[in-house]
Amino acid sequence: MANALDPHAAIVVQASAATPAPLTTADGQPLTRALARSQRVARRRAFMLVLPLLAFILVTFALPIGQMLGRSVHNDGYSANMSRMAAWFAANPPGTEREEAAFEALARDISDAAAARTIGIVGTRINYDVPGTRSLFTSSGRQLRELPDPPFRKAMVEINPQWDNDRLWVAMRSASTAVTGNFYLAAVDRTRNEDGAVMRVAENQRVYLMLFWRTFMLSLLITGLTFVLGFPIAHLLATLPTRRSNLLMILVLLPFWTSLLVRTTAWIVLLQQQGVVNDILVWLGVIGNGQRLQMIYNQTGTIVAMTHILLPFMVLPLYSVMRTINPSYVRAARSLGATSWTAFRRVYFPQTLPGFGAGALLVFILAVGYYITPALVGGSSGQLISNMIAVHMTDTLNWSLAAALAALLLAGVLALYWIYDRLVGIDNLKLG
Amino acid sequence: MRTASILGAALTLLASPSLAQDINITTYGGAFAEALNEAYTKPFAAETGIGARMIDNSDPPAKLKAEVEAGNVTSEVYDVEQSDVIRLCDEGLIEPIDPALLPAAADGTPAADDYLPGALHECGVAIMVWSTVIAYDTEAFPDAAPATVADFFDLETFPGKRGIIKRPKYALEFALMGDGVPPEEVYDVLATPEGVDRAFAKLDEIKDQVVWWEAGAQAPQLLADGEVSMTLAYNGRIFDAIVAEGKPFAFIWDGQNLDMDYWVIPVGAANTEAAMKYIAYSTDPVRQADLSKYIAYGPSRLSAATNVGLYKDGTTEMAPYLPTTPENAAVALVNDAGFWADHGTELTERFSAWLAAN
Question: Could you tell me if residue A30 is inside a domain?
């Protein structure tokens, strides 16, 4: 039994006596349930507050991106409009001889699709795999408004000998199911041959892998350049007296607030062959009038313009981190005998890394998706993968291929983000 | 849920269909929409009493497609490009247009025989013609002016850099014509692998002297800055540079590549009868030429070419600047959107790979 002098004893005794009756609120409800209810109401109210934002993000961000990515593996342009063909392909395994029944299904499906005016969709789908076949479908559709007399194989070949082409049938088989990986194959410069086996496309068609590689390498280079250029600026901003650093800050922010197009065209004015820089070099006699340098409409132009445009994204996180670094650390290191280089290397620089991480991630991810600047100043050697995505979105209207390219780009960025997290740790990121 | 229903209601309000008698006309906006409004829409509303309203949209074909699929069509008439007419018609999203309903030419020629090739489509009527054309700086060639597509590829006689649009479309056609292929055979040749090789081989001859441009405004700028001495350009841009800014530029009409914009009527439009009236009104040969008073685009009707008058400044004779004036259109190629729908992806890949290989 508890000691009478033990102050806890009374409570213990009371508690053990009161076990059967649960705690209740003033109006007699069990306390736990009342508490849970009031918390539920609070949670719901909090959720209602974020609901508009959630709905906004869902409608304007998650849904369109999800739908777009869906297009990269799903295209029912053929399967939904050529039901007899889809059924024939489902019933007959690859390698089956194309007999009369197959051609009858083909003729009837094309005829129906022409009547329903979906033949363009069908042709466009096959055209993605076998270029030049879109008009084969539409023109044959016009001739097949009335069904020909059997035998259908002969009739179809008479309309166009292309209809008995192996590659076309491989493409039609692969399109007869809505889900396909062909767009991803195309996005890595691969295609399927007559037997349906994956192979590389002709050498003069290979472009995407090279562009992915170039995009990542240029983005890395630009990230490095912004760091080299931005670090001293950020350091200066962080250490100058406030009045002068504010003035400098405006010089960093003014271009940041200026339109991207204005800054890009400003670089054109400066760097073109009849531009300011070349004029000055010729005037100084450094180069002759006939040897004006080509500094824009190529890779150099892309690197210069993008580095300049992305510089603030490196300077600002670095600056915000450097502001918080206590100068007495470096002073302490110096007083303990470190040279200024060692103090910088061992004490100051490591403390700026969170800012570098944030800046590098920002600059790199922005650079990977850059579009307008390389389009305007990239010429032939400064094109990035985003330019090809844009071409397929707006020019060739091959949205499925654009989606596949975009998905690969997104996957690449996420993979790099993951590596960054493993190596540096995303918690070390500091934006301000 | 409540947010969604409010959002839905707001969207419905924004997209309410036009009133019973009125028509809406959706275009790409900008200077062309203004010209359409002055030349056709305002006089149409005044003469017929049918209310007609211009709506600007950055992408009319996409809007049309979305509206037809949602069963909520807000405009009766849309302005779309050639490739879109073909696509939208194939997909059954726009109404067929009967050429018999279009006004005949002054001499009685039925409308069906009075249009440029390709200008009358099963589902659309071309309303104007613009062109991608070679323009040059007259000051760069004081002795002898270049006159043909072949001159564009002749770096010895006509030195200086060349500006070309960074797309296979136009670049490849000009390359073949520069290599001596007559316009009527260009797309047949380009449809063969040898033809494509031939076009790239021609471009190879001048590749290191080419400045590739992307936005239409870049072409006159490159000329004005002296970066190039000759460039492919959109005729309207060069016209503005010559007339509005007094630049010393000139056209080589030889081998120009014609493109057209079309009127189309979406399936499920509320007021197709009034829409057809508007289309017939605006394609009348006399009135069609009125458009050129406001913008440097030519009429798509053959008999309208002679009706073209002065520019809105009151002094500039428009005929010499229009792609459709008979002497300018003598050696012209009508861009084949069907060909590019077939081969666009493949040729874009080849072109990009070729560009990247130095």
Answer: no
In Å, how far are B139, B140, B225, B246 from B144, measured between CA atoms? 11, 10, 21, 21
B285 within 8 A of B278, measured Cβ to Cβ? no
Point out the domain boundary residue: A180, A203, A226.
A203
> With contacts defined as CB-CB under 8 Å, which chain B residues touch A381?
355-356, 358
Q: What is the C-alpha R_g of chain B?
A: 22
Question: Average pLDDT for residues A291-306, to the nearest whole number?
Answer: 91
How far is the C-alpha of A320 from the C-alpha of B169, rounded, in Å? 48
Per-window interface: B 133-192 vs A, CB < 8 A: 161, 166-167, 169, 191
B212 DSSP β-pair partners: B164
Distance CA A14, CA A19 (A): 9
Give CA separation, B226 vs A279, A317, B118, B207, B229, in Å.
Answer: 12, 41, 37, 18, 7
Fold of the B5-129+260-324 domain: D-Maltodextrin-Binding Protein; domain 2 (3.40.190)
Q: What percent of chain B is predicted at pLDDT more than 90? A: 65
Give yes or no for B355 touching A (CB within 8 A): yes
State whether residue B206 sits within 8 Å of chain A by CB.
Answer: no
Query: Using the beta-carbon criterion (under 8 Å), do B226 and A397 form an inter-chain contact?
Result: no
- Cβ–Cβ < 8 Å for B52, B23: yes
Segments forming the whole domain that contains residue A394: 208-428
Predicted local distance difference test score (pLDDT) of residue A149: 84
The residues with which B164 forms a beta bridge, in sequence order, are B212
How, if at all, do strands A198-200 and B23-27 pair? unpaired
Closest-CA distance of chain B to residue A387, Å: 10
| Percent of chain A at pLDDT exceeding 70 | 94
Q: Contact, A138 vs A119, CB < 8 A? A: yes
pLDDT tens digit sequence for A179-218: 989 899 999 999 888 777 889 988 888 999 999 999 999 9
Distance CA A341, CA A144 (A): 82
Instruction: Assign A1 a pLDDT band (cuts: 50, 70, 90).
Output: very low
DSSP track, B177-189: HHTT--GGGHHHH
Question: Is residue B4 less than 8 Å (CB to CB) from chain A?
Answer: yes
CB-nearest partner of A396 from B4, B7, B344: B344
In a shared domain, residues A418 and A283: yes
Residue A16 has pLDDT above 60, yes or no: no
Residue for token pair 């350049």? A225
Contacting residues of B for A52, CB less than 8 Å apart:
3
pTM of the predicted model over 0.90:
no
ipTM of the predicted assembly exceeds 0.90: no
- pLDDT of the residue at A332: 94
**Looking at residue A255, what is its pLDDT?**
87
Q: Are residues A112 and A188 in the same domain?
A: yes
Percent of all residues in chain B with a pLDDT value above 70, rounded to a whole number: 94
- When computed from its CA atoms, the radius of gyration of chain A, rounded to whole angstroms, is 33
Q: Domain total for chain A?
A: 2
Strand residues in B199-296 grouped as ranges (E): 210-213, 230-234, 249-264
Distance CA B214, CA A264 (A): 13
Q: Is A413 helix (H, G, I), strand (E, B) or coil?
A: helix
* Sign of the dihedral defined by the CA atoms of residues A283, A284, A289, A293, in that order: negative
Inter-chain residue contact B353 with A206, CB threshold 8 Å: yes
Residues contacting B115, CB < 8 A, separation 6+ = B126, B300, B301, B302
Domain B130-258+329-356 has CATH 3.30.2350.20: no
Lowest-pLDDT choice from A18-27, A259-268, B56-65, B154-163: A18-27
Of A209, A267, A261, A268, residue with least CA distance to A405 = A209
**Cα gap B40→B24, rounded to integer Å:** 13
**Which is nearest to A131 in space by CA: B252, B107, B140, B350?**
B350
Is the CB of residue A35 less than 8 Å from the CB of residue A29?
A: no
